Amino acid sequence: MASASVDLNHYFQQGYRLVPLSRTVLVDHDTPVSAYRKLAGGAWSYLLESVQGGEQWGRYSIIGLETRTRYIVRGHELTIERADAAPETTTVDDPLAEIDRIHAALKVAPVDGLPRMTGGLVGYFGYEIIRYIEARLDLPEKADPIGAPDIVLMHSTELVVFDNLSGRLHLIVHVDPADPNALDKGEARLDELALKLRQPLTPPVSDGSGQTLTPEDFQSHFAKDDYFAAVERAKQYVYDGDIFQVVPSRRVSAPFSADSFDLYRALRTTNPSPYLIYFDFDDFQVVASSPEILFRVEDEMVTVRPIAGT
């Protein structure tokens, strides 16, 4: 939506707290990787891509610029980090209900003509959030060898939706309709992002040859005999009627000193999938490639498409 045509007061009167402004830019000389490096490429940013049928890139790639507000859950402690304030940590009984409350309070205006994704909460929910659903699985003494948060969500208010079909991208920034200078601020920020896109990539994207790993470099954290014993326990749980399926997994690790984004670039080349993910959470990164949507909720319509065994 062109900024000049946006009636922010209209959205303000309807109770919306944020309104996405956008600009369409021709970028047939850029890729999602180079655009990410130019506009984000640092802490608290992300890149989401898609490959259809394992052969062609999906239509949209989503680049999230540095987020200024983050929600981090460890156990029952919720920490809110803001770029311009000290972190706030509180203890909550139900972290999922608290995240739901935070999400409901965002109130981002729906704007016609924009892609499906225009911002919001972006991040992950870890496996251990089952403790918030099944109380008997809330085991505080359970070892946590990784130390990653159970939930990390970034409030994404500046992003780029890369249209791989048309060679154009949508620059999107959220503004506060209560701010009388919101349009001017939003327009200035869009100008700044468009200018960055026109600049050469500095430093250039690396060739991805920073580190080589072999199978011998990886260490399993689940001994073979313990794994077999877990399978036998799972079979008994099925027999007893407690579960109907389970996926025993083995975490492996290896020393890694290369650029994490180069790892993502290698993954998207060697294992292109419908859902490719790169999250930069400052002190750690998440690189993922998944073949399934699992589920999507859009306009009260739920799409569920799990693959066999999950």
From TrEMBL:
Catalysed conversion reaction: chorismate + L-glutamine = anthranilate + pyruvate + L-glutamate + H(+)
Coiled-coil ranges (or none): none
GO biological process assignments: L-tryptophan biosynthetic process
Domain of life: Eukaryota
Pfam families given in the database record: Anth_synt_I_N, Chorismate_bind
MF GO annotations: anthranilate synthase activity; metal ion binding
Cofactor or coenzyme needed: Mg(2+)
Keyword entries, A-Z: Lyase, Magnesium, Metal-binding
Functional summary from the UniProt entry: Part of a heterotetrameric complex that catalyzes the two-step biosynthesis of anthranilate, an intermediate in the biosynthesis of L-tryptophan. In the first step, the glutamine-binding beta subunit (TrpG) of anthranilate synthase (AS) provides the glutamine amidotransferase activity which generates ammonia as a substrate that, along with chorismate, is used in the second step, catalyzed by the large alpha subunit of AS (TrpE) to produce anthranilate. In the absence of TrpG, TrpE can synthesize anthranilate directly from chorismate and high concentrations of ammonia.
Listed PANTHER family: AMINOBENZOATE/ANTHRANILATE SYNTHASE (PTHR11236), ISOCHORISMATE SYNTHASE MENF (PTHR11236:SF48)
Binding partners and assembly: Heterotetramer consisting of two non-identical subunits: a beta subunit (TrpG) and a large alpha subunit (TrpE).
Protein name as it appears in the record: Anthranilate synthase component 1
Organism: Cyprideis torosa
